[in-house]
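hey can u run this one w/ glutathione bound, need the structure tokens asap thx
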Amino acid sequence: MTKPFTLFITPSSPFARKCRIVARERGLMDRIEEIDAKLRTPANAVLAVSPLGKAPTLTGPDGLRLVDSSIISEYLDRLDGAPELHPDGWAARWRWSDYWALAEGLLESLAWRTREFRRPPAERSPSFIAYEGERQARVYDWLEANVPATLPRSVADIALAIALDYAIYRFPEEDWRRGRPKLAAWFAQESARDAFQATLLPLK
Ligand SMILES: N[C@@H](CCC(=O)N[C@@H](CS)C(=O)NCC(=O)O)C(=O)O
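ok here u go:
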């Protein structure tokens, strides 16, 4: 039977992983087909539906086409009614959203730094790589001092756990867990969840 939604992903995309975890946690996988989009190749399947050609991209009934992981995550969370991972309520919303934005900023920084290493060695910018590395270290330190245990669980926790896992995946020699026991303990708990384990990044 054809599923009504298609989620274009790559198995190693942390942005796509956010949507994949939300979809699993909300029990939507019987309605979503995940397709490995083969990004950055002429066969990139996303190009047929979006000029950005990025993953994740979601298509669905009535011409639905969404091209950003945060928008797709919220769409999926609200698909069947009240959201569970985007808790409503004025005060709570801004507290977890701020923390969510921090997680997204970390993820972006990790993605930019990773892309720099895809360039031929002579075209890489050591100062750019160092600048992003310093930003990442500052965020880890801030999180160690402000572990998010007091907030209601939300998409912010998912985004942060994905970013921290992606950091270990791309920069294992810099393991952020060293000297940050509170953040490491929080990560161990969040990353043990079923949907996180069902979307582990592929072996390199
Ligand atoms: N802000 C976007 C970022 C998406 C993004 O950059 N995805 C990467 C994969 S991790 C991508 O599509 N790269 C392919 C390209 O840049 O051509 C989101 O949250 O969805």
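The mean pLDDT is 96. anyway lmk if its weird
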